[in-house]
Design brief:
6-stranded mixed beta sheet, single chain, 6 strands
Length: 206
């Protein structure tokens, strides 16, 4: 009687950066100079503790090159006694034409022309492009670290877009898709190319 081989499970933790010091409440996007707040640092530490308590050492710790992500990854690495493996542009924040404006600038009538196509979206980097670059980065990690666990510190949009892409192949992610909170850990599990499912953890209120 033939038996199916046991899955060789590869684990990818997608971690959103912690809360940013942003007193003017702008969409910071790719702008430099936005760092973690005191709360954000505590959130990042909680995420690192969470990964340590899972008991599976990381084979790689990759981060978006933006400051808030690097700072989050450094704190997580400190909890795990490991250095950042590399910064990868493919897991960075989605481009947004509203970056640098107030968080609710899309409510201003003179900005409405940007919002004509929320499926693409018309105001920034297409969701499909974000999914493609995230998938390329994560596929590369899975290939290099099959059977191990890796962590990627990224941003809200790329994380939920990636999760949508693996859960619903062929469907373009959209604005109303699942979101993730600051310093949360979205864990994707794979057997080779096959997606097995996910778990989600968010830090407690601090």
């Amino acid at each position: 009687m033939a038996y199916a081989p046991a899955p060789v499970e590869t684990v990818v933790h997608l971690i959103r950066h912690g809360k940013v010091e942003n007193p003017t409440n702008v969409r910071y996007g790719h702008a430099p100079g936005f760092h973690l707040s005191e709360l954000g640092r505590a959130q990042a530490k909680a995420a690192g503790v969470r990964l340590r308590e899972l008991g599976q050492p990381l084979a790689a710790l990759v981060t978006s090159p933006l400051e808030r992500a690097v700072e989050t990854a450094e704190i997580i690495g400190g909890e795990l006694a490991m250095a950042i493996t590399k910064a990868d542009e493919r897991v960075t924040e989605a481009q947004n034409q509203l970056a640098g404006l107030h968080r609710y600038a899309f409510l201003y009538p003179w900005q409405w022309w940007r919002l004509y196509n929320p499926i693409k979206p018309s105001w920034g980097e297409p969701f499909a492009d974000v999914a493609a670059r995230m998938r390329a980065a994560i596929d590369e990690l899975r290939a290099h670290h099959a059977g191990a666990a890796v962590a990627v510190v990224s941003h809200q949009a790329p994380i939920w877009i990636m999760r949508e892409a693996v859960e619903h192949p062929g469907r373009i992610p959209w604005l109303g898709a699942v979101r993730c909170t600051q310093a949360s850990v979205t864990t994707l599990r794979f057997d080779g190319e096959r997606y097995l499912g996910h778990t989600y953890w968010a830090p407690p209120a601090l």
